[in-house]
Write a structure and sequence with these properties.
The complex is a heterodimer of chains A (111) and B (114). Chain A is mainly beta and 111 residues long. Chain A has no helices and eleven strands. In chain B, a hairpin with a 5-residue loop joins strand 5 and strand 6. The chains are: A mainly beta (111), B mainly beta (114).
């Protein structure tokens, strides 16, 4: 059974058009992470939530925002996508520890 | 700052052969070390982790890894590779205690040939 679900699996957007990626989890984990993974690169942490506390990485562009309305859901908003934002976006969860469960990812294409 | 080096971008092995994927880390204190596997089109799956105790760690799918502090290494091994092991493997390092922010290596792509 799927534990971390990401929707959509593939997202195509236009340059500058806002886009929202969704992540949901059935594990009741208190920590949720968003990673960006570009082709042939390591996943890069954008931000994470520890319960409702939002923790932004220092080098995450302001263009990226996140919302966590409840324990189960977390959203990644890209306000004005640029060509350089094309990547795989991975959501992960943990119970106060290592990001242990990853979703399948959303591949974002920017035209 | 913590960092991870995976010196092999691609590795090809024959099915049934043994496998060793290399990982070297840089971290100022006692590290928390991980190996993840990513199958094509899938998210990452945690294979195993080490933070203390026996330096030889057993993971899922028949994988093991050995922590060698003197070499700053955490190499992943499997005695006999199966075609389904073809995937990308990521080594990662993080700080101990609390919730961790792991730093990933660039990954090693494993190809398995019949």
């Amino acid at each position: 059974d799927a534990m971390v679900i990401q929707n959509p699996r593939y997202q195509v957007t236009q340059f500058g058009k806002p886009v929202t990626l969704s992540c949901s989890q059935t594990l009741n984990h208190n920590v949720m992470y968003w990673y960006q993974q570009k082709s042939s690169q390591a996943p890069k942490l954008l931000f994470h939530y520890y319960d409702k506390d939002f923790n932004n990485e220092a080098d995450t562009p302001d263009n990226f925002q996140s919302r966590r309305p409840n324990t189960s859901f977390c959203f990644l908003d890209i306000r004005s996508p640029g060509l350089g934002d094309a990547a795989m976006y991975l959501c992960a969860t943990s119970l106060s520890g290592t990001p242990a469960y990853f979703g399948p990812g959303t591949r974002l294409t920017v035209l | 700052a913590q960092s991870v080096t995976q010196p092999d971008i691609h590795i090809t092995v024959s099915e049934g052969a043994s496998l060793e994927l290399r990982c070297n880390y840089s971290y100022g204190a006692t590290p928390y070390l991980f190996w993840y596997v990513q199958s094509p089109g899938q998210g990452l799956q945690l294979l195993l982790k080490y933070f203390s105790g026996d330096t030889l760690v057993q993971g899922i799918k028949g994988f093991e890894a050995e922590f060698k502090r003197s070499q700053s290494s955490f190499n992943l091994r499997k005695p006999s590779v199966h075609w389904s092991d073809a995937a990308e493997y990521f080594c990662a390092v993080g700080p101990l205690g609390g919730y961790q922010k792991v730093t990933f290596g660039i990954g090693t792509k494993l190809q398995v040939i019949p």
